[in-house]
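During the no-cost extension, the postdoctoral fellow (Dr. R.K.) reprocessed legacy sequence entries with the updated structure-token encoder. One reprocessed record is reproduced below for audit purposes.
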Amino acid sequence: MRSCCGAVAELSFASRTQKGDRYVTASDQIYGNKDDVELTRKIRERLMNDPTLSTYAENITVVTLKNTVTLKGMVKTFLETQKIVKIVDELTNSAINNELTYYR
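Re-encoded structure tokens follow.
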């Protein structure tokens, strides 16, 4: 597990995704179309209703823009990251940008 300050710095850095000349953040979700917003809602619902996922996993950031789903945040294990990506993959044919990190 990383130190408090290291984890905060890493989360801060991981909370941005470079898209062209700028970074995409969760607040950019408002620029998504109706389908993007609906897909994000479905993903969040599945994550929240899966009893095998940790609270960390339930609180990741999910952003869908232009048919690309970006997953950001920290989860407990590598296996949890795989499970989250599998859930997203089951819900969509969109590209998945997995930026999840986990405790080692």
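The chain has one domain: 4-102. The CA atoms of residues 16 and 25 lie 6 Å apart. The remaining legacy entries will be reprocessed before the final report is submitted.
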